[in-house]
Amino acid sequence: MVMTRVSPRRRVPRMPRMSVLTWTGVALLVLFLLLALVGPLFASAPDARTGQTLAEPGAAHLFGTDHLQRDLFARTAEGARVSLLVAVAGVGFGLVVAVPAGLVAGYFGGRWPDELIMRTLEAVQALPLFVFAMFVIGITGTGDSQLGPVTLTATTKVVLLLGVGFIPYFARVTRSATLVEVQEDYIDALKVIGVPRRRIIAGELLVNVLPPVLVQAFLWIGVAIFAESALSFLGLGIQPPRPSLGNILGDATSYMLLGAWWYSIIPGLVILVATVGFNLVGDGLGDALDADGRH
Amino acid sequence: MSAISVEHLSKHYLIRSGRRGQDRLVHAVDGVSFEVPEGRTLAIIGESGCGKSTVARMLVRLAEPTAGRILVHGREETDRRTIQLVSQNPWSALNRRKTIRHALEQPLVVHGLHPGAAARAARVRELLELVGLTEDYLDRRPGGVSGGELQRVTVARALAVEPRVLVLDEPTASLDVSVKALLVNLLMDLQRRLGLSYVLITHELEIARHLADEVAVMYLGRFAETGDAEQVFSAPGHPYTRALLAAVPGPGREPAAPLQGEVPSAVAPPPGCRFHTRCPLAIDICAQTEPELRPGPDGRRVACLRQDELVLSPDPVDKETETR
Predict the structure, then answer these.
(1) pLDDT for B108-137, tens place per residue?
(2) What is the C-alpha separation between A72 and A64, in angstroms, rounded?
(3) Which residues does chain B have within 8 Å of residue A8's beta carbon, measured at their own beta carbons?
(4) Which of A114, A171, B176, B282 meets the CB 3.0–4.6 Å disulfide criterion with B276?
(5) What are residue A167's DSSP bridge partners?
(6) CB-CB under 8 Å, A208 with B97
(7) Cβ A194–B110 below 8 Å, yes or no?
(8) What is the pTM (predicted TM-score) of this model?
(9) Is residue B100 within 8 Å of residue B180, measured between CB atoms?
(10) What is the DSSP secondary structure assignment for residue B86, as one 8-state letter?
(11) What letters, b where the CB count within 10 A reaches 16 and e where it falls short, cover A28-57?
């Protein structure tokens, strides 16, 4: 048989058309990332005293100073960095547990491993995150606590709490993507060839299930920043002197009536920018992925 | 000795209907038996929903038979590799994010065949050559390859584990007409070179006519007629086979009127002959007595109570349409 040599058609990656909302999201996200990742490099130490108490924003102190004479630009930038790291770590921890759980549940869709995993996660989900957080912090305290040989700092506790709270959602997204994917004929084909189940799940299903899950996870980084801020605002999260967007805002509330508007407005705006930015960009990524999936 | 012999194979599915409703039993396949001699092809033909794909799934052990046995070379086979599958939709049968190289190497890796990177690469090249593809395809993903070429890749993947039997489940159904013939030729060529046995599941009678040595006509989970392909296609015995063949337009022939009514539900198959509800020749007894596959004088087996009368009136279905 004569085979003409066909040169592989390279698919030119098309730039997805982005909506105004997505562009807005990108702009907000860039702004936030600049503050969180580049800001701390240019700012003074977040604990350094400036000698000025509650100074208004100006040339010397871009975001003003707080009641302990600390530069608020330095603290907001460092706080944004801490919040971002905690959020990313929390989402990452959630993914590490949820993706395998969701894959296994989806692979066995409807049979007992699925039931076991999903009912367990529903039990976790039934507990409101903040009630659970208060319970955990109430028992272990806001300081470091020992868990066997491991020392859990307050920051680690927040990461774990966020992660546990997100696991049910991430697992559900993973499971539903898996349920669709296992309908594909290649799963049957691999079984017939004799490919072991673990290899099918980890080697073949995972690569197809991961993209929509990662998009979802990206969206949830915004939620995580918001949740971390709320926990720290209540004093259950990141502990001073380490700044986070939430605990700066928490301190600021006492000085709002004294006219220090910048103290609470600025970290509040940063939380807003981060949350909206991650959400809009995540939505845009999801749309792009959908468009790609439809060919 | 037969490559495959299947004895009284059945598959019943239980459908749970709500909390209080009665569980219903779907008779997808009901006691079918057949043999495929070494190096030959059996085609199982029938309408969609007749259970032919369930037979395919049981042969490749994707479904557990409710009853019956599948023997390979006279023994109950424990090695999955012996019977491999080529399915209908090659786009779905290959992982869209994996290269063709990955698809062909994986069976070798999993079964420890041709160990070593060099030996494995050589075997992959050999497999590609076997199905008439060039090495250019190795690093491509299914997205940029045509259906006919992808189906060749799935054939190559099935052959990677050195099977003796291929189950071809509608292998050409999703391909362009121009490509179907190429694949059929490839399959015939491979059968000759490798001595493979085929079980071809199809509703495309033309494909069955080209590939099959023997034919089994399936209706509602049972065989209506089995026999030599040439005989069955040129002089169909069972009224259902006649209707099935007459529905295909041929040169200078209009397709006959299609069968009246729907295929009855497999949950409650009709009593007696399962075809009697749509059979133009049905008489009272057909609704009561279940016909067995009985061998006729020419070696073919027909499951019809009026088999003896059928021989006398050669083509009652066609005659009926002519008088209209």
Answers:
(1) 999 999 989 999 999 999 999 999 999 989
(2) 6
(3) 136-137, 139-140, 144
(4) B282
(5) none
(6) yes
(7) yes
(8) 0.82
(9) no
(10) E
(11) bbeebbebbeebbeebeebeeebebebbeb
